[in-house]
Description:
Largest sheet of chain A: 2 strands, antiparallel
Strand content of chain B: under 5%
Low-confidence stretches of chain A: none
Number of helices of chain B: 15
CATH architecture of chain B: Orthogonal Bundle
Number of helices of chain A: 8
Order of helices and strands of chain B: HHHHHHEEHHHHHHHHH
Strand order of the largest sheet of chain A: 1-2
Shape of chain B: globular
Distance between the termini of chain A: 37 Å
Radius of gyration of chain A: 18 Å
Largest interface: A-C, 59 and 59 residues
Number of strands of chain A: 2
Mean pLDDT of chain A: 82
Mean pLDDT of chain B: 89
Oligomer: heterotrimer
Shape of chain A: globular
Number of strands of chain B: 2
Strand content of chain A: under 5%
Largest sheet of chain B: 2 strands, antiparallel
Amino acid sequence: MASERTAAAGGLLKRCKQALAENPVLLGGLALAPVVMVATTVKNAVALMIVMACTLVPVMLLEAVLAKYLSMVPDFARMALCAVFAAAMLMPARLAVAPLAQNIFDSLGMYFALTGVSALMFLHSPGREPEGPRFAVTDAVCGTLGFALAVFLTGAVREALSLGTFWGVPLGFSVKFPAMAMPFAGFFTAAFWAAAWNSLSRLIGRMGGGREVE
Amino acid sequence: MQDKELKAPHIRMRESARSAMLDVVIALLPLYFMAAYFYGMRAVALGAVSAASAVAADMLCVLVSGRLPNLRDLSALVTGLLLPLMLPASIPYYVVITAAVFAIAVVKHPFGGVGQNIFNPAAGGFAFISVCWPSLVFSYPQPMFPLPIAGELTARLAESPAHALMLGAVPTIDTLDLVLGRFAGPMGVTNILVLGTCFIYLLFRKVISWQAPVAFLAAAAATAYFSPRIPASRWESVVFELLSGTLVFAGVFLLGDPVTSPKRGLSRFLYGALAGGATMLFRYCGGFEQAAAFALLLVNSFTLLIDHEAERLFRIVRRGILGFRAYRRSRRIVKKV
Amino acid sequence: MTSFLLVAAVAVFLENALFARALDISVLLPALHSRRTIWIYGLAVTLSSSAAGGVAWGLHSLLQGGGWYASYGQPFLFLTAQAFLYAVVCAGLRAYKKELYRAIRVPLTISFFNCAALGSMFLAVYKAGSFWGAVGTGAGVGVGFLLACALVRVAEGRLAICNVPRAFQGLPVRLMYIGLLALATYGLIGHQLPV
């Protein structure tokens, strides 16, 4: 019994490591729209993280429950139910995001709701098999962490370069690049972070003696 | 028996990538000379700073990718020298440094470096700083008033004729001044006579081909003639559209980039015409008075497609001509019979 | 009909969903697999966005004015409407065209639940002035996605022969390519603020 629990814990840990090394946003290309368009400041990035956490974890848990216990429900009905549930989760997400800043929803625009939809993309990430609730929560937490990392890195760099601040605190840069707040700069920033993550995960793979992540 | 080293018989010229780049650098020197004549040594200093930044960024990118820098590669130097010529002489140094570093580190190296880039690095660098600092990039000092190399600039800045065209007004400049470049504008693009000489030199040295620039200017002229955006005669519209802004400069130096332009003659015609049409569309409908760089970035993405489709079009046309000739021959035979 | 065509043309060329608003990126990557998948995903996104645009216009006409609608109700209702449309389409296909449903199940799911489809609902409501304008916005999003896919696919051929650095191979160089095209189209359209 104890050995089974140890093996299960080891399996979960391995799954976590793999999920974090294969960042779903920077390497998988999921949920890139909010990262590219509105991750222009750290505050926006934190708001997006909260939305993703509020939608992804409950949705993946629900999908695992529906798959395991309601096997008579067709696939498309399960997907539609998950979508409605994700939509419902946007309401508490809105309450959680509101204290961040007064005009946070103006700067997020429609990408607040689109982040909730992006959570649904994680259900179809390549190589993902719907398993029990425990693995679903692990996948959801790792997915959220991966998204949080991507959006935070992008938001921090863009805020520093375009406004010369971090969370509104001036960094003392004499030169600012206003174009870094534009969508095309989001593509460039995400690309450079993806390239850096690519190299890092390859290095970690080589150091761990495991397979290289492509 | 003695081994004798012989040059490969199919290599007829001594040209190489390095000699081609050197020819472009030589072609840019008269433009820098004219810029120095109009605006003082600040123009040359901007060129030097931009070139140094581009070369440094290029070397750093090559080192980061695990290779050794090739000191014989002049492509970064060319990019660095091209950029300031599209800018006002009053531009701060940090702007040209940003443009040069962006051109090399973002537009060139992620796609594989020298000879592999899909987009023209100078056009990309110019587009980026135009978005960052439009008020700095599109305000020009008057010529014949030398600017200090360093320190604060107190010169009065004005808008170029391209700005007047964008607003739908007729620029109040004499045609002779327009040709000689004696008006407020980007420091290397205003003197059309010198640009024409550079074009002839590059053609003579076979660094660029004539199809793309001619088609580019022809398409731009045709658009200006048939759809003028200013209340003047059609020919005046053509003259103002071609001679103001970076159109001619883009046609000579940016369009003919051997890496980003198509390889076949017909493809170059199509590419030039597409670039000319796109530039005029961006000028008419876009928000920037100097639109050639943006249009060129868009058209660069079509280069491979144009090469493929031009080849197919060429084959279809040739088959059509051969088929028509065969049909006429058969008709003659039938008539004889 | 004129408003449909006009709005669709603007959505396709000037306000391309990929280059101006980054809406279709997550769908782009699976779509680029082959020419066939580009057509499948393109058509699926066009149909889902057009239908979604029309539905969003209807909902907005009925419910606008309420304070709760703008802050809490709109995202919930739009996504629920999208889920309902998806369920209806899937149920219909499953009942009458089982083989087709099995073949396009995954593209259909991705095309309905992505930023392009939901984004077109918001765009339809705030940018279009009529029902047909709303449907045209959705259609424009889909056709714009198809064109963007074609452009990026052309680049794949070019990138295959380039010596792209190992770190940039795959997604990073595609993002750089799309970013530079977005910079180019910025010269035409300027900055698109999120709705």
